[in-house]
């Protein structure tokens, strides 16, 4: 068994595990490679040096007549560098003329960014960095007031945004007093059509100009700022490693977003360490995870070390497959909910199909899995030619690596992608507070069920959490709260020194996430401590862990597990897997034509499914306290409810779910009852 981490000798202290490092970088550093790159500005210059004429930033052609998208159009790295110089100079003039008293962090000024992913977002960010400014991503991921909160909290004076965001900002000017300048990514003469321009015309754009004057706001478009910079160029003022590069707001799964200040040193440390782990070159990357958060930018920075083409998704999640077909990426960076959707579509057409197609696919799948396990070879001459090359073509046919973050990805999904797409799948771990960097799975590791090993230059250790039942002395695998010591750790939460102190244990970031160290040195994510609840038996239950386990039952698509200290069982809002559930439930209900909604409300169906899940829980080793006491069957998938149950990163918002399903949860707890029940009852 090859150890993938290095255990630092004599580093254990009471209540804490030993310190673990990447086994290839035992001294805890990166080594000397790329040591000359210390800021995002220097990384941009590095990419310009290694790929000056290469395609760099791409967007799809758009036909306003029928709303269709065509091939990608590209800016070369040289084109982008010229744009950054001109727009960066223009920004210098904008701040000096229209926002001379702009506040910020220390002597730096923030530039608000408010739009879906597009190449203008990245160009504006690199332009801000060129003059030692930092970007602040603005999003609507939590509620209608999120954008206002961010503008006010970060004291933003200048915002670069898409045209569709302008009317909303103007409507709420009375509660965002710091805002002085709005720079529109779209031409205000409407001469360059794109999807967000569809709702605007020359007259409505002119009305925005007029309203800006009435509100005392300077409204410009990016072309006007470019012309200002070209007319009077300014000298670049590059940042230092300790300067702030960007401020990202946490995803808001538990309430108000926190503003996380990330330095150039931190982001470069993280991206460099990830590159040293993966060493991808000449990468084609689809930018689809919201740029307001740090994960997609962290990926782009990582790929810039070896050269990258970044194609931006068109903004319609229903057309992601079309974007992939047009771009033909070599790497796909996503999150489990997105990857699960791709898996469900592909698996139903192959290993889940009926007849000859299904039988052949399952035979091929078993053969490739066996070959991969024994040889580490992702390809198979026969089955790829007969079947899997056609499957891979659905994602462009060039995919070499899938990188998953945010939460656990089902091992079956990982195995399917490796076989069906002949590409590697690695999982990683990071937080906003680490600039998305933390751990990453090695490319030569074809196992699943873990989040890899520490990035080069990162130290990790565990802290015992006895109240939750996790100890660093647990055998055979130490368990506890993951602690990270790294230069990638954030500088502070803006304006919240107490929360900053609470998040640190000396020089270690306390992540709030429980993991275990496996015998191979890999790290398995267990659950988030904030998703634990102690029921009245005294047992501490991880709702997230139970959701992962129960969702693997064939009748279950997804579920939300809730627990309360006054009750002796956990309960669940459960979304069934319609394809499996409907025929089973019709048999149980003796109603061969009953629709899904009727079956979900059928008392006999609910009773029998609850019993099936009780039997299932025992078969997978769950305790009595982890059995579902009662369930409510929700016919509509959570994603389709359109009631704010997910963040922009598609993380499930438990507090929002508890509020939305409050009536159903109360009925379930009434069924369960609040009597104390011991494990011997």
UniProtKB/TrEMBL annotation:
EC number of this enzyme: 6.2.1.3
GO molecular function: ATP binding; long-chain fatty acid-CoA ligase activity
Gene Ontology cellular component annotations, sorted alphabetically: endoplasmic reticulum; membrane
Keywords, in A-Z order: ATP-binding, Ligase, Nucleotide-binding
UniProt keyword annotation of RNA-binding present: no
Pfam family, one: AMP-binding
Domain AMP-dependent synthetase/ligase: 71-494
ATP-binding as UniProt keyword: yes
Enzyme type, top EC level: ligase
Signal peptide span: none
Protein name as it appears in the record: Medium-chain fatty acid-CoA ligase faa2
Gene that this sequence comes from: FAA2_10
């Amino acid at each position: 068994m090859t150890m993938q981490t290095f255990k630092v000798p004599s580093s254990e202290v009471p209540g804490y595990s030993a310190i673990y490092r990447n086994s290839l970088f035992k001294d805890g550093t990166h080594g000397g490679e790329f040591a000359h790159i210390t800021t995002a500005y220097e990384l941009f210059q590095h990419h310009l040096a290694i790929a000056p004429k290469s395609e760099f930033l791409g967007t799809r052609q758009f036909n306003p007549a029928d709303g269709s998208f065509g091939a990608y159009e590209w800016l070369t790295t040289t084109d982008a560098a010229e744009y950054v110089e001109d727009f960066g100079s223009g920004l210098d003039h904008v701040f000096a003329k229209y926002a001379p008293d702009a506040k910020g962090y220390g002597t730096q000024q923030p530039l608000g960014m408010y739009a879906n992913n597009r190449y203008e977002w990245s160009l504006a960010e690199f332009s801000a960095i060129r003059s030692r400014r930092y970007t602040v991503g603005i999003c609507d991921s939590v509620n209608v007031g999120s954008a206002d909160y961010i503008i006010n909290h970060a004291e933003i004076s200048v915002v670069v945004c898409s045209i569709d965001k302008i009317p909303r900002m103007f409507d709420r000017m009375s509660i965002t007093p710091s805002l002085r300048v709005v720079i529109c990514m779209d031409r205000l003469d409407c001469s360059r059509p794109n999807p967000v321009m569809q709702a605007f015309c020359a007259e409505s754009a002119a009305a925005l100009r007029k309203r800006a004057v009435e509100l005392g706001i300077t409204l410009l478009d990016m072309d006007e700022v470019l012309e200002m910079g070209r007319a009077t160029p300014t000298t670049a003022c590059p940042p230092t490693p300790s300067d702030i590069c960007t401020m990202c707001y946490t995803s808001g799964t538990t309430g108000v977003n926190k503003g996380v200040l990330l330095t150039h040193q931190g982001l470069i440390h993280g991206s460099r360490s990830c590159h040293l782990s993966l060493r991808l070159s000449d990468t084609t990357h689809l930018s689809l995870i919201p740029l307001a958060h740090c994960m997609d930018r962290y990926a782009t920075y990582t790929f810039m070390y070896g050269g990258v083409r970044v194609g931006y998704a068109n903004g319609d999640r229903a057309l992601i497959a079309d974007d992939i077909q047009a771009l033909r990426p070599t790497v796909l960076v996503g999150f489990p909910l997105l990857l699960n959707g791709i898996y469900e579509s592909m698996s139903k057409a192959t290993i889940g199909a009926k007849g000859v197609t299904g039988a052949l696919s399952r035979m091929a799948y078993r053969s490739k899995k066996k070959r991969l396990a024994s040889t580490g070879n992702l390809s198979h001459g026969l089955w790829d030619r007969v079947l899997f090359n056609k499957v891979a073509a659905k994602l462009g046919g060039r995919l070499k690596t899938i990188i998953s973050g945010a939460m656990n990805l089902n091992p079956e999904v990982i195995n399917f992608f490796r076989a069906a797409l002949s590409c590697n799948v690695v999982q990683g771990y990071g937080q906003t507070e680490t600039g998305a960097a933390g751990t990453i799975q090695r490319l030569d590791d074809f196992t699943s069920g873990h989040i890899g090993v520490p990035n080069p230059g990162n130290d990790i250790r565990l802290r015992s959490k006895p109240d939750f039942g996790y100890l660093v002395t647990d055998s055979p695998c130490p368990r506890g709260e993951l602690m990270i010591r790294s230069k990638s750790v954030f500088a502070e939460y803006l304006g919240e020194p107490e929360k900053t102190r609470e998040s640190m244990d000396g020089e270690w970031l306390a992540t709030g996430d429980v993991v275990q160290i496996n015998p191979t040195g890999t790290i398995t994510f267990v659950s988030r401590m904030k998703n634990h609840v102690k029921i009245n038996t005294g047992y501490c239950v991880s709702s997230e862990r139970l959701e992962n386990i129960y969702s693997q039952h064939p009748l279950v698509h997804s579920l939300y597990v809730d627990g309360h200290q006054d009750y002796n069982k956990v309960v669940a809002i459960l979304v069934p897997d319609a394809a499996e559930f409907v025929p089973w439930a019709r048999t149980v209900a003796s109603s061969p034509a009953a629709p899904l909604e009727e079956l979900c409300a059928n008392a006999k169906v609910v009773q029998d499914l609850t019993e099936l899940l009780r039997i299932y829980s025992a078969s997978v080793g769950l305790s009595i306290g982890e059995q579902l006491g009662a369930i409510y069957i929700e016919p509509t998938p959570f994603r389709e409810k359109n009631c704010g149950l997910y963040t922009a990163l598609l993380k499930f918002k438990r507090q929002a779910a508890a509020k939305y399903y409050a009536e159903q949860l109360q009925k379930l707890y009434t069924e369960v009852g609040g009597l104390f029940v011991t494990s011997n009852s």
